[in-house]
């Protein structure tokens, strides 16, 4: 008889899930990765995800320290807590990675995204598109007799909701920047 006892409960259905504090439920996590700004770093980070079959919901990268040659990669991904821990550990092993933060578990954070949406239509559909844009505080950045291009900034859920309402009104194209996120407070 083995000395190992598996705790009974919600996580006892798998012999591989020996840590009762982990679940099998996929969660959305926002990771902030500070990296050295040098050729090939982004490819190594992306390779980590693709090589292990992990998906990236959103990816943004920009230089944040010109003198220190540092860039920040913000990645939104989904996975079980075990997979998220594995991703963070593997990211930390990449030589050019300076720091990895899981904004989802480290406390409150602020996420924003920018999107541009082209809506084509005439008559009542144009009027309704403008009315909804006003409600969502979207700006008209281009207008022709047949279309509008709206710019909207906010949480990804806000942008999703706006796009869903624009689809029946003639949404023909959308471009999104991806999530930018910062932890709140000190």
From TrEMBL:
Source organism, top-level taxon: Bacteria
Molecular function GO labels: acetolactate synthase activity; acetolactate synthase regulator activity
InterPro entries given in the database record: Acetalactate_synth_ssu (IPR004789), Acetolactate_synth/TF_NikR_C (IPR027271), Acetolactate_synth_ssu_C (IPR019455), ACT-like_dom_sf (IPR045865), ACT_dom (IPR002912), AHAS_ACT (IPR039557), AHAS_small-like_ACT (IPR054480)
EC number(s) recorded for this UniProt protein: 2.2.1.6
SUPFAM superfamilies on file: ACT-like (SSF55021)
Enzyme class: transferase
Domain (ACT): residue spans on this chain: 30-105
One Pfam family per UniProt: ALS_ss_C
A Gene Ontology BP annotation from the UniProt entry: L-valine biosynthetic process
UniProt keywords, alphabetically: Amino-acid biosynthesis, Branched-chain amino acid biosynthesis, Transferase
UniProt catalytic activity: 2 pyruvate + H(+) = (2S)-2-acetolactate + CO2
Gene Ontology cellular component list: cytosol
Involved pathway(s): Amino-acid biosynthesis; L-valine biosynthesis; L-valine from pyruvate: step 1/4; Amino-acid biosynthesis; L-isoleucine biosynthesis; L-isoleucine from 2-oxobutanoate: step 1/4
Subunit structure: Dimer of large and small chains.
NCBIfam families: acolac_sm, PRK11895.1
Described function: Catalyzes the conversion of 2 pyruvate molecules into acetolactate in the first common step of the biosynthetic pathway of the branched-amino acids such as leucine, isoleucine, and valine.
Family: Belongs to the acetolactate synthase small subunit family.
Protein name according to UniProt: Acetolactate synthase small subunit
Source organism of this protein record: Sulfitobacter albidus
Gene encoding the protein: ilvN
